[in-house]
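#structure-requests
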Amino acid sequence: MKFNPVLSAVAMAALAQALLIPQNVDALEAFNTLLTNDVESNSPNHHKAAKFEKIVIANEDESEIAPLVMNDKEQIPDSYIVVFKEDVDASTAHSHELWVEQVHTEQVASLAKRDLQHPFLSKAQSGLKQAFSIGSNFKGYTGTFHADTIELLRRHKDVAYVEKDSIVHANEFATELDAPWGLARVSHRKTLNLGSFNKYLYDDVGGEGVTSYVIDTGVNVGHDDFGGRAKWGKTVPSGDADEDGNGHGTHCAGTIGGTKYGVAKKANIVAVKVLRSNGSGTMSDVVAGVEFAAKSHAEQVKKNPKGFKGSTANMSLGGGKSPSLDLAVNAAVKAGIHFAVAAGNDNADACNYSPAAAENAVTVGASTLSDARAYFSNYGKCVDIFGPGLNILSTYIGSKQAVATLSGTSMASPHIAGLLSYYLSLQPESDSGFATTSITPAQLKKNLISFASVGVLSDIDADTPNVLAYNGGGEDLKDFWAATKSAEQIELEENIHEAVDHAGNFLTSIRKIFFGF
């Protein structure tokens, strides 16, 4: 992981004056008093607080100051993601958060005394916004803070790094074409033809017992194609309604688990809204959405309801490189969620984008009907697999029957989230020789890639895996779980399927000629 340390020269100079120049000893003492005081009794959590340890405000060793990292995308002024070091426990994190609230309150009061018109004072929701904890060692918080507060945070012994919050966008291209071919493609080894382009071969219990979290713009949960299997989970953006005002999330959800348009037709869908109706949002809100999915999954595992097979998640969104988002996704995967993420639509190296660069997730590029890499799809070693992503028909907003055709790696990723859900639901029974207690995300990712169709795509460079998703064609998946079937055997079986398709079409034509039906 590479950080770009950034230190405000003005803030550094001011801090140096407060620390080293005798005339400003009073200012330094005031700061140390603030850092060691009890939390004020009017704090909502005053009964939980203990005295804070005295904090070293500055450190002459530049290497011990937490990095301030940022990407080259649109930044959100004064908005930050603060990540703790891995050894910080829950109690220490809570004490730190109370300290931050106190520091921020004093900072705002100080600004108000100096300049009532200071731009920072106009921010409606400044201060600590939300704490997060995903898995056992990824903790932190988000919020709106003055630059001087951030310089103090970077010198706190608990802080690993501070990231500037930035904008993320849904990864899609709109189109008016109508081509419902994606499901057929993931159920055939070879390029689709007239005998196979509209045939989806699958196991009709695919997705049963699996919960899939759609971390996106929301989901039209009342859409008929979900058959009552979709529900609202959480709305993260403040003040937003519990609805999909964009359509992007609903489209992705339909590809995952719709009755007609879905890969895993019996999966349960949970809407996690992190993007607003314009299709954009903040990295900090996306991290909060990932946290919700991870904790919701953990609750299901604890309850262990009958028939529960596991959880998947899809994030068809992206922005600049964000170590916080990548680590959040990695932590959620370690907690047991099988994650699919979009590679991005910039025709560039996916490793430069988040969450595409999250190594534990399955990063998905987009392919076309003619088995080429889609012209917009990101590429490179961070891409794990390709899925159909051009002119994909799925569910939409506006009514309970609405559909739309969209393009993007956003459309490719839910094919893989659906496929992960499909495979999870079809895990071997306990009396099978291939049975496991519960397949881990790492194991399922490995099997998914090993079982994919290899070398069938064009316009793939040497650094990009040439693998296209495959669901087994509706047959017994013992070879998926054992990963022993040879490429020659796979090709032979596909040739047989193709011959059967052609024979069926021929017999249908003969019947119509001689019998009229």
